[in-house]
Amino acid sequence: MSRIVDEEEQRSPALLPSMEVVPPGRNGKPWIPARYVMTILGFLGFFNLYALRVNMSVAIVAMVDQTEKTVASAVIGNDSADEICPYFNYTTASHGQDKRGEFTWSSQLQGIILGSFFYGYIFTQLAGAWVAKKFGPKQPFGLSALFSGVLALLIPTAAKWHVGALIATRILQGFFQGVCFPSMHTMISLWAPPLERTRMVAISYSGMHVGTVGALIISGLMADRWGWESIFYFFGSTSVAWYFLWFFLVFDSPDTHPRISKAERTFITTAIGRPKLAENELPPAVPWKKVLTSLPVWAIAVGHFGNNWGFYTLLTNLPTYFSKVLHFSLKENGMLSAMPYLALAVLMPISAYIADYLRRKRILSTTQVRRSFHFVGQIIPAACLIAVGYIGCDVYGAVTLLVLSVGGTALALSGFQVNHIDVSPTFAGTLMGLTNTLATIPGIVGPFVVGLITSGPYGQTFTQWRIVFFISAGIYLVTALFYALFASGEPAKWDRKKTDKSLEEHD
Hints:
With 507 residues, the protein is mainly α. The protein is built from 19 helices and no strands. Helix 2 packs across helix 13 (295-324). The two termini are 21 Å apart.
């Protein structure tokens, strides 16, 4: 197969044989390079951020009086037995007999509570990008986890005081977490050599999915043994503890790191090729008109929106589906809800490695990699969600399809998720803030829509949930097609960066 050369490389000068810039850590250099210390702690940071984000999905099952499901079963009656699953189909005699929660919230109110995090989250995306660009990305990312963790410690008190206080606390958590993605994208644009870009994004961002797995499993076990309050005390404490590691071990860029080796600093700065700002020089102004009229930017935004619609719909509502339709116990609910995200956490780094391999060996161009990975990564979950709508009470089949649905999106994350840095390394954080603002809308609208569709005595049935799954599948398909047609892996002409030498790695 002939090798495909990116437009980006064609514009870059050929590397001189004398330029022996080899990644440190292979010839007696530091065991863990500084850029991967940042990446690993970024992984742990996202672990905590997503644990704080998703633990409400399991906690609310334990918080709410679930006797509504018995009423629903009685109302539906024997003529519609195929619409719900009997409790006795499963593994334990006590199935469906979880402790009665202390709150009597309707399905619509539960949808508002689950979506309230995103009410605050949507407002700080672009602000987070601006702060990270002006003051450095380290503290915005770190403080987002710290403040969100402190607020988690207050949730039990807020919930028992008034549901409005609970919603306000979740809105504030979202407000502080809104800066995390723009900050991390800015951080990676400063630390990641081009040919390590996808894997560094994949490693750090896979903390989201490992955190989701951990939160779902641990939350189910803790709620069953110590009550739902323990969930928020535990994850709030781990987030506060993580912040101190981040504060002392991570720095804004290779140029500001006091302990990085000279070889690694040279390798990173040479590979990225970004001109260094003078001491008092302001960051470049964002060319908003060009950004907002850029089709590749809109392709990222549309792809991001579509991926998040399916992701957030399942993330916030899967425990409810397992509890009220498939009738899993609280303990089993947490473990089974975690399985799809465990698959995603495992497949995401593998997908990223393959994507980088195809680019490094020039088997596919960056544009081809981004488009194909994203398209396949949304077609798979769309097909699985359509199928799960008809699987009925086949527990193993339903769980398998949901695992494939969520796990399949690992491919899409090697598409749109890193594409901001391809299009504009200089304004990567701003682009992430822009697209993530639009992609937060599913987090607000999705739980509310699910609450409306599944409300009432006939709400928790296969027919109603089939509508939920079909909506997500349709959005997956439409947005995947748009991204496949218009996405680009090449730097935009309006990006400030003057050079971008894609250095070969010596394997």
